[in-house]
Design a protein that fits this description.
Structural class: alpha+beta
CATH class: Alpha Beta
CATH superfamily: Endonuclease/exonuclease/phosphatase
Strand order of the largest sheet: 3-4-2-1-12-11
Distance between the termini: 56 Å
Strand content: 25-35%
CATH topology: Deoxyribonuclease I, Chain A
Largest sheet: 6 strands, mixed
Shape: globular
Order of helices and strands: HHEHEHEEEEEHEEHEEE
Number of domains: 1
Length: 291
């Protein structure tokens, strides 16, 4: 009788201890419990530096960006000079955005040329990486931005421009991918800019399988390398070609929309740039928990 009573008391104690222990969290449920971020809007545009009437073009660009209200703007051919305030800074001030400028030119030099990232979110960290060959003056820029308390990586670049320069672009892509690997950590990543070639070009295939191009993802099954999908402005003498791209980390985003922007002149017939811009709206699929 004593032996049975002892056994029963031990069993009840074990059951009580099990009931008091919290359930072991399921990893999938833990990730699913992190609140989803709202869709993210990104725009890329080659500014065409200070060609033609820059003040008028600036007003047109600001008006379009105010209407789009993107989270991030990626700019190429950004210029500053003795009598020209940094173009990215001017746009950022007009929009109320933060910005970072990336250039291979010395910081003390009056005339500097490069790329920029504008964002309406807090910037956590920045870095830049010159791309080889050195005499091509190409650079990649990085910004970690904070969205709803969580980090997200954004990269901008502008590759070699000659049609026959595929080997140079391939070399530059190698440097860019090394730069991304060194800076991305665990945060989701986006990349955009003027690549001076189709997103299907062999020299850009180092992006796969981690990254995909947003425009084809938003237009599945369509022939996209046709004049109506150009990002080079044919009204200013360019042969139509889609060379400006936004790439997204495939396991981190879903493309909701991607379309050409800045494809119409203003009311006086002035074009924003000799490039059209590209806009993509992306749904983050996974985010890091808040720290």
């Amino acid at each position: 009788m004593f032996r049975c009573k002892s056994w029963l008391m031990a069993l009840l104690a074990a059951l009580a201890m099990t009931a008091c222990q919290p359930p072991r969290p399921d990893p999938a449920e833990a990730e699913a419990s992190v609140p989803a971020l709202p869709p993210l809007t990104v725009v890329t545009l080659n500014l065409w530096h200070d060609k033609q009437d820059w003040p008028r073009r600036q007003d047109s660009i600001v008006a379009t960006l105010e209407a789009l209200r993107p989270d991030v703007v990626l700019l190429q051919e950004v210029l500053q000079d003795k009598d020209l305030p940094n173009q990215a800074q001017s746009l950022a001030l007009a929009l109320g955005y933060r910005y970072r400028f990336y250039s291979s030119d010395p910081s003390a030099q009056a005339r500097r040329y490069g790329n920029a990232i504008l964002t309406r979110h807090r910037i956590l960290a920045v870095a830049q990486q010159p791309l080889q060959p050195q005499d091509d003056y190409r650079i990649a820029g990085f910004a970690s931005i904070e969205i709803d308390g969580r980090p997200m990586n954004v990269y901008v670049t502008h590759l070699h421009y000659k049609p026959e320069g595929g080997d140079i672009r391939r070399q530059q892509m190698g440097g860019l991918m090394d730069f991304i690997e060194a800076t991305r950590g665990y945060a989701p990543s986006l990349l955009g800019g003027d690549f001076n070639t189709l997103d299907s070009a062999p020299e850009l295939q180092s992006l796969a399988p981690a990254f995909a191009s947003a425009y084809p993802a938003a237009h599945p099954g369509q022939p996209l390398d046709t004049p109506e999908h150009t990002t080079l402005n044919p009204h200013l003498g360019h042969t139509p070609q889609r060379i400006d791209h936004l790439f997204f980390q495939q396991d981190a985003f879903k493309v909701l929309e991607a379309r050409i922007v800045f494809e119409q002149p203003d009311s006086d017939g002035n074009w924003a740039s000799d490039h059209f811009g590209l806009m993509a709206r992306l749904q983050p699929l996974r985010v890091l928990p808040k720290e």
